[in-house]
Batch of 3 targets.
Target 1
Amino acid sequence: MSKVNTKQIKDVADKSEVIGNKAYENFNKDGKLEAGKLAIAAFKNTLYANSLLIKTEKI
Amino acid sequence: MIKKNKRKWQEEKLPIIMSTGIIRNHTVCKKCNITLCKKNEILYERSYKGVKYSLNMGQCKACHSKTSFCKYKYEDPILNKYSLIEYKRVAKKLHHFRNAETYKARSREFARNAVLNISDDYSRICLLSHPYLDLKRSDITPEMIELHRKQLIVKRKLKKQKL
């Protein structure tokens, strides 16, 4: 676990959060199904990435 | 200010303390309005300048022990035991009958909140119980809670659309 690339994980977390927020705004405006699904997936990715980062910090 | 008032009050009541040793400020119970007597009242021990006295705090014994039923003591211990159980059962039924409206309103509110459950605690519990995240209570940040809340809102809206 010491060779984990934390920068990559951080990038993934930040990018997916930005994408998720945009999709969430679009979903609130239009109410399209695709935008909603994208938002859910993006938020899920950010949560996974954040949990991974916490685990690496502990080790 | 409070200390001065207390001292004044104690000085005024000093002659009563010296004579009887009991101060009765309340004649009626604060909660149930029953007249207080020697059998019913509770006395708290206090001291002023080395002189001990007892104070009536305005609560009857039943209110102090938070019992919602009247108990009758039988001579037979087995009868006494079963009577207590029966008293409690009747008291519970009476209590529910008197406060039925409030209980119904509370349950309605609870059901309404369960549909729109977007509180911090709910999302925190969801994150903690997630099998792949493996998080502890100290790891969860407010940002993560917000993300989870947004996710929930989108999921529920999509469910409504499908229906």
Target 2
Amino acid sequence: MRSSLWIILPVALVLVITCDRSNRILSDKKPSIKFTQYYLQGEQLYQKHCSNCHQPDGTGLGRVYPPLHQSDFMTNNFEQVICLMKKGMEGEITVNGKEYNQPMPGVSTLTDLEIAEIATYIYNTWEHQRGIIEVSEASRILRECR
Amino acid sequence: MKHLTNLKFLFFTLVFILNACRPEKDKPLPVLGHREVVVNEVNGQKVVDTVYHTIADFEFVNQDSIRVTQNTFSDKIYVADFFFTSCRTICPKMKTQMLRVYDSIQSLPDVLILSHTIDPEHDDIAKLHDFADRLGVQSSKWHFVTGDQDKIFDIAQTSYFATAMVDNTEPDGFIHSGAFLLIDKERRIRGKYDGTREEDVNRLIQDIKRLKKEYAQ
């Protein structure tokens, strides 16, 4: 009984220390309630409007629909991505060195807030860690869409 | 002693479960569509025959500009569907699922896929070629065909019992079903599956193997 205690105690101690540390790391960047709201709402909107083509896990489909989970296009063309959700886009684009050319219809009924929520979701899932995209930022970009 | 009874019980339960499972798997797939019983006279003897619904003759062109007819599928099992490349509603899901079917039949030389476009005006041969290329699939295994729109609509509705028609109230201008149809070597429909649902397509993948067994005997 006593010997098993000597095994359990150190293990528990290590666990407590590491948990405490990871908690502290989390609390430094602890997602705000606002971020969580945007993110969860964005996830639902993504599944409804985007996942049909880009797939629920963001992997895309062949060279027909480009992936989002790893995407240099998303990283380098943030403002364009915000615009194309609403206005759609046509023509050739290059994503991760591969060429894609399938017209994407925009969802014109999306509000600025909904676009901010979807952006918050896709830019903080998979390999992306951009942080919250505020509705004010989305509105500014959407006003300037070509 | 009690231990032994328990074991016996377990054994019989297992036998029962296994027996109950077996017939379903070995049963041949149903033949869908109407059927007629025909009585013929052969050498003065009355012979009763059942005539099943079959897929009518057709002639379309595939992504490599090759003529595709019923003869392309002679002695083949195939899976058919109706779609168009610019469709943004159910087709992306259908193509995701059909790609799973494609992967599952790689080692089965007598199983093919036939996808008809219902928007031949937009989906010409070049468009279909590009689409197949982008999906990364072989044209010898997966035919994407185009042709006269009326003929495609007609074969969809009268042969495959799939809905496909122009509807300008729809966002893409068409309504069509997301059905996958399993066709046997006698051109009969042996299964209908919702091509947008993963579970249904799992069933299709299993049914292809079941249907192949019928020909193995």
Target 3
Amino acid sequence: MSALATRTPPRAEDRTPPLLRARWITGVDAGALAALVVLILVFSVTAHGFATIDNARSIAISIAVVACLGLGQNLVIMTGEIDVSVGSIVALAGFAAGPVGVRTDSLFWTIVISLAVGAGCGLLNGILVAWTPVPSIVVTLGTLYVFQGVALIVSDSHNIVSFPLHASAFGTGFVFGVPRALLVVLVAFAALALVRRHTNWGRDLLPTGEHRAAARTMGVPVRVELVGAYLLSGLAAGLGTVIYLGSVGGMQTSIVDSNLALQVIAACAIGGTSIEGGRGTDLAPLTGAAIVGVITAGVVIMGVPGVWISVAYGVCLLVAVARDRVRELVGARRRTRG
Amino acid sequence: MWRTSFRRRGTLVAASVVATCTLVTACSTNTPKAAEGGSSSGASASKTIVLVPKQTSDPFFTAAESGAKEAAKALGYTIDYVGPTTADAAGQVTTLESALQQKPAAITIAPNDPDAVAPVLKKAMDQGVVVSSFNADAAKDARQFFVSQASDEGIADAIVDTMAEQTNGEGTFLLVTSTATAANQKTWLAMMRPYIAQKYPKMKIAQVIPGNDDPATVLQVTSSYLSAHKSDTTGVWVIGGGMSGAVKAQQQLGIDPKKMPVAGLCIPSDVRADVHAGLIKNCVLWSPADTAYADIYAIDAMIKGTYPSTGTGTLDAGKLGTLKIKDNVVEVGDPITFTDANIDQYQF
Amino acid sequence: MAETLTFRELRGERVREIVSRSFGLMLLLVACVVFFSASSPYFLTSSNAFTLFRIASESGLIAIGMAVVIASGGIDLSVGAIFSLSSVMVGVLYTHGVNIWVSVVLAVLVGLVCGLFNGLVVVALRIHPLLVTLGTLALFRGLALGISNGSGIAGFPTSFEFVGQAYVGLVPEQCLFWLGAIVIAVLVTSRTAAGRSLVAVGANETAARFSGVRVPLVRLSVYGLSGLLSGVAAVIYTSRVLSSRADAGNGLELLAIAAVVVGGASIQGGQISIVRTTLAVIAIAMIPNGFVLSDYSTSWQYVAIGVLMIVAVVFNEGLASRLWRLVVRPRRGRTGTSRN
């Protein structure tokens, strides 16, 4: 569908000087990274106490979960679909793996169960999206409710509390001063980026999103792409759950109210992945999550009264989402005038 | 021919569905409507008490449910534990409207908003249903009595005192509340401030941030605040849920919780490990099970006519003994301070 | 997809489409009614039915707006936030001395303005409506929180009760209002050029533009309408509970989308049926109502809604037409090919 609409030529990637076309950073990322840098500078100046190592670590830990989920959601969005059930997958994985983690203090079993639940949910999503004509937003809305309900039933109205030390490893602790949660996310990022760039399956993700019918004609196994993307999204949610359990030390039944999926989608979009599919980068969810984390922390440190924090977040989100388009429009007008 | 036959068939299907529904509905008007608009004696034919929590999956309220069931078993009632899945007022109103259809003996609710539920509660009272509130009060004319776990002043004073004794009555503090809209929070904060001004003038609340009752949010806001104000913060008050998040934030930043006390309201299950480890010295709450237990006894008294008609008097509350009632507020007791020694007695 | 193309070529396809797309909805309605009336004797009473309709009227109005937005090919995630902002406006204005009815009108206008803001950003900046309304979701709710300072507002005059609590005979007043809105919406979407333009824009924007339809105007209007209806629903809600709070309307947007989709409309746009959307709203509202009456655990409610939604939509989207082709063999004398 995006190919049928008039596309503003040329694409940002083509204009990038070779230096920036490095392995991990593309031209599309440059805009988001620039925004991140600007925000950090602004807050460092206006919010006393912002520019500290402690704050940097605090932000890194607070965005780890959203960033991890974003890595998976990014793949789904690239194929032109969406997954609004990730928040519920985290809840379900958390209440399934949590009690085991508490009883055994085993990081291994926490990871295994969490990933298994995530994979199962992701597979279900993928199969429904690929094999029924139901649009993905509808499917994942339905599974959002289903997973949420099952999570609450499994929890039996008991919160997970006092998550033990070893099982919390992914969420706590520092390695050479860097929070372990961040390292886990970076490893996941590297793994998924490698898969996306160097496997046939991965390279076919963007074409699937850009023009589904053309991709099919070219021989891309669209159904496999979709199921795979959702599977990875589910796995990422499972991994994010392990980080969550470790960093927060447990999980509450009220997590179902947290709108986690929307935060994750926002992070991917702010970072530069197009919501229509077919355009996106691997770094997008990380930069997007970082921008949101910086804004949230900055607003708290600035002392903005609690009731206005949401407004600040909404304004920044809109500005971030509009920034690229405004720049395009201004650029286009300048070109046609000149 | 093709088209009209389909159109006819389609319309027929739709029409028959609608007709069936209407017919069945109309024919069922003979189901229990006897007590509609009746007097108080009409509703007591039922032995069901509807208990509406703020949120059904909240362990705090499932503890209340078990306390209520214990009392109900002794007195011969059944408890219908129904409510919204998210802590909002609209969900409670919908639940109440639906629950009213089955003509219960009584409805008791912990409202998310004291006024939003008032119209439907008044409607319930008009129909002869006994209405009470517990844990949080509804509008005074919308319920017959309120079961208070502890007075608001008592709670506010306890929150302040437990922190003051750990910091010598002075210092600068971060205050983390529950959600931005919770009514109790505003009340307690409004009572804390004058109490501090009067008794501990050297204590200062530097900033108030909502924690949304969520340890993850409490963790995030506390760690953001503390990374900027590490050196000039004396302690962290948490008066919403999620106190363990504040302790986690301190651990992440390498702050010793014994040097920067975390105090306030807590849920035993959330902070049990921290209290045993000495990371939290003490914190305050009350027993939701006891509150609900007393509530059922009070409802029973109201139904049987032994409740004081002036609104002031005493109540025989089974295992809790005799409780005082003042101006239609049943006082269950004082807030409980949890410490390493007693926290294991409370399992919620 | 080739099979559905053939299906669509048959004459009378539109009628068949309507019936098959309603299949899942009808199934859902019947299933709910049967199940809940079996679980509780109080379910199928006129008193419960009117209670149900009374509460559903607010979601129903919002669902009409959502149906219109989705029909144009867009989506609006901020309806719940607009709802809360309008509700807060009624309270804040009234407590600052403004006459209650003027406050009501202003609150509804605020809803309209919020909706137009959404539309403006979508049209002028050409950003995907999902992202725009995601941002305005946070913005509007944040404004509601800030303006109300997190407090609920009560103390409305008794005359205000009329909007949300009055009865005309046995029928709640807001149901009549809802019915009126439905009738107007049905007439406009099916009989006016505006309605046809709406569906045209959603079905194929480029073709619509070349047919002379003012696409930006259509887009702007649908978001404005959605905001307006959210504002109206908020006023009804505020009157029903006599309290205005910033956390009202949580989750309304997802339920509205669910209702439109279960009602058989395609999420990509180009189709609209107000009647089916309304029936879907009622079906979905039955679930919490039935659960309370039957005293089933509320956690299962979520599972029920999710499963029913998926099943209903699967039936709407594909299963029905496939069953149709199996069961009803093509007859002689029709135009179009018999290619399978």
